[in-house]
Amino acid sequence: MNALRRRGRAARPALKSPDDTMTLTEHLGELRVRIIRSALAVMVGAIVIIAFYDQVLEFLTKPYLDLCSGREVEFCGYDPAVGENPLNIFDPLEGVSTRLRVGTYGGLIVAMPVILWQVWRFIVPALHAKEKRYAVPFILSSIALFALGGFLAYVTLEPALDFLISFSGEGVGPVFQVSRYIRLVGLMVAAFGVGFQFPVLLVFLQIAGVISPGRLLRSWRYALLIIVVLAAVITPSGDPISLVALAAPMTVLYFLSIALGALIERRKRRRVVAPT
After folding, report:
1. Which of 54, 172, 231, 275 is the most buried (most CB within 10 A)?
2. Residue 181 lies in a domain
């Protein structure tokens, strides 16, 4: 203990159960460590994305280019056969800010496994030993669902842009700003990825005993209303195609989370009544 004090830092307590407690200072110190590690992971991911910026930008603009290649010249305001770039900048500094924005969004996505792990490690001390064994499944399922949501957002981007451009009217010619386009794509991926975390939260609440599968099943009508409203709120484009594309799988995942929670609850009851 004296040696640790001489080095100017205190040893981090090893919590064996939720009954062990940490002081407010220790909680804040632990939170700071987790935030710093997550920020470093995002920074490394951003550097990697910026290094491959041209390839990433080509990938992000592909849905818009594919849409324009199948429509008349007036629809997108340019001729894809000529090979012009449909995205524009209106500020000398916009190229730099766009590159940094792409790096930030990409860094967050690349660092998502590290961020989720750090979040889980921060809340683990408040859990029982039986609940801690779900750490790896929760992290893996969160990453998989976020990736699935981001992929769905990317796939539905082309029909969403088709609706948005068509809805603006026949006499309106689109001139897209590259920074605004990148922001839309980033927010769409983030919205779908976060929305697909909904079942992970429900399963966690069921395991923690906060809510039961039966109660979730009885409240399915209210849940569907909440899902539609949530999808409408977090979808940045506001178009019905993206709303349905997000609300429909969230509804399916809602019932799957109930089924998984019921299965976990049944196994818990079997372990309780099983003879020792």
Report:
1. 231
2. yes
Q: Among residues 186, 181, 187, which one has the least CA distance to residue 164?
A: 181
Q: Which pTM does this prediction carry? A: 0.77
Task: Report residue 88: phi and psi, to 5°.
Answer: -130, 160
Range of the domain at 127: 21-271
Q: How far is CA 97 from CA 30, 39, 103, 109, 155, in A?
A: 33, 19, 10, 18, 26
Residues of the chain with pLDDT under 70: 1-22, 77-85, 125-132, 272-276
Alpha-carbon distance of 157 to 185, in angstroms, equals 8
| AA letter at 99 | R
**Do the domain assignments include residue 88?**
yes
Distance CA 74, CA 124 (A): 56
Q: CA-based diameter of the chain, in Å?
A: 78
What domain count does the chain have?
Answer: 1
**What are the b/e assignments for 117-128, b being 16+ CB within 10 Å?**
bbebeeeebebe
| Tens-digit pLDDT profile for residues 37-66 | 999 999 999 999 999 999 998 899 888 888
Contacts of 264 (CB under 8 A, 6+ apart): 203, 206, 207
Q: What DSSP element (H or E) covers 45?
A: helix 24-51
Cβ proximity of 53 and 129 under 8 Å: no
CB 152 within 8 A of CB 192: yes
Comparing CA positions, the residue from 85, 100, 109 lying closest to residue 177 is: 85
> What's the burial of 87, exposed, middle or buried (CB within 10 Å: 0-12/13-18/19+)?
buried
